[in-house]
Amino acid sequence: MKKTNIGIIEPSMILTEGIKKIIDGSPDFKLVKSFHGNLNYSNFVLTGIDILLIDPRSITETQLSKFIHDCKNGNDDLIILTLQTSYLPSQIIKLTDGVIEMDDEPSTLFSKLRNVSKSKNTNNESCELSSREKNVLILVAKGKTNKEIANQLNISIHTVIAHRKNITTKTNIKSISGLTIYALLNNLISQDEVILTDSK
Amino acid sequence: MFTAQNKLIELLEYNPQLILMLPRFGMKLGFGEKKVEQLCQENNIPISLFLLICNAYTFDDYTPSESEIKEIDGNVLINYLIASHDYYLNHRLKHIGKHINKIAQEAGDIGTILLKFFHEYEKDVAYHFKNEEENLFPSIRKNLAATSSGINKIDFSHTHENIGDKLTDLTNIIIKYLPSEVMSNERIGVWFDIIQLTKDLEKHTDIEEKILIPYATLMEGD
């Protein structure tokens, strides 16, 4: 199972460590990146983060909305939550996708995190590949490029990429040669159709 | 955070994985109750670098400061990285390969493909390491020996290549997708081996990104 990665921007080290301890105690979430002190957002790297918790004290009010805008820009899937340590005006809270409060019980924290990550991964429950995904997988295993697959199935390259992303999420296999083995084990292709060379 | 005044055994008790640092730095077992400071002196290892690596290896959040990085002996750091490469290729992957071989023999036709997948991965890793050892490391060493006017810009693009993905694929195939009847004990054993190697490789990448690259970049700037 893939964990949901959490990032935190919080000036207090003690708070950060406490939240990390709670989050890392859950099998579904992991705190992967933390940032203390004054935020100079040019050096905060968002790669690999699914949910970002930000304490608005880390940044001035005028910079906050720009920061959130910049974070979301190019990271459509990123969810940003306000970490509320004291009273905040509603226009600040409205900038983000939700609020975690300092008084929240760990169970409340987790149900909030689960709720926002669920709304993101809509069809995550089913691990079965759809028949379209199977067709794409077969062609991937046969060494076809995205363009060739798009042509053959009469769909756009975008759609091929989306299918491939889903296949990897469902099987947790990324490499082409790994997917080939998966296809073989599930009798989607036969052994003589396979050329096991990996172009990555 | 560990300090030179900690006993080596205290580091190992806190993070058992650190036992792997010993052969990489040429330290021997049987160190008794000695402190890190004394052991490093006896073995001619720069104390600050040893601690830097042990700390980066143990504490995910730890990123060394610029002044700590500046103090490093780059040659010792590179020797450490090369010794790690040797351990991955010639010890861990060989060992895992033996397990995979046994599993493959029982898995029939699919076994051949599984073995091929594994050997392909071994080749990828060997290629990645070779590239670092033949291009990246020598150019850093060259800059180390050069006067400020002779320092060249270094290309780090290959350092970021991901060599962990296929290992994750391999664990998934072995545990989730190979037919249930194939050698479960062997598969359970190799699962631990691969997980351990995956973690070790992640830390190895961390050390390159948190220590080696900033170090080499600082050198360029001077």
Description:
The complex is a heterodimer of chains A (200) and B (222). Chain A is of the alpha/beta class and 200 residues long. Chain A has two domains: 117 residues, 3-Layer(aba) Sandwich (Rossmann fold); 63 residues, Orthogonal Bundle (Arc Repressor Mutant, subunit A), CATH 1.10.10. Helix content of chain A is 44%, strand content 13%. In chain A, helix 2 links the parallel strand 3 and strand 4. The model of chain A has no long low-confidence stretch (mean pLDDT 84). Chain B has two domains: 55 residues, no CATH class; 149 residues. Chain B is globular, with a radius of gyration of 20 Å. Helix content of chain B is 71%, strand content 0%. Chain B is mostly helical. At the A-B interface, helix 8 of A face helix 7 and helix 8 of B.
CATH superfamily of the largest domain in chain A: Response regulator
Number of domains of chain A: 2
Helical fraction of chain A equals 40-55%
Number of strands of chain A: 5
**Assembly state here?**
heterodimer
Largest sheet of chain B: none
Mean pLDDT of chain A: 84
Unreliable spans of chain A: none
What is the CATH first-level class name of the largest domain in chain A? Answer: Alpha Beta
Instruction: Tell me the helix content of chain B.
Output: over 70%
Strand content of chain B: under 5%
How many extended strands of chain B? 0
Rg estimate of chain A, integer Å: 21 Å
Secondary-structure blueprint of this entry?
The complex is a heterodimer of chains A (about 200) and B (about 220).
Chain A: E1 4-9, H1 13-24, E2 29-35, E3 51-54, H2 61-72, E4 79-84, H3 90-93, E5 99-101, H4 106-120, H5 131-141, H6 146-153, H7 157-171, H8 176-185
Parallel strand pairs in A: 1-2, 1-3, 3-4, 4-5
Helix pairs in contact in A: 5-7, 5-8, 6-7
Chain B: H1 8-14, H2 21-25, H3 36-42, H4 47-58, H5 66-70, H6 74-106, H7 109-145, H8 165-177, H9 184-221
Helix pairs in contact in B: 6-7, 6-9, 8-9
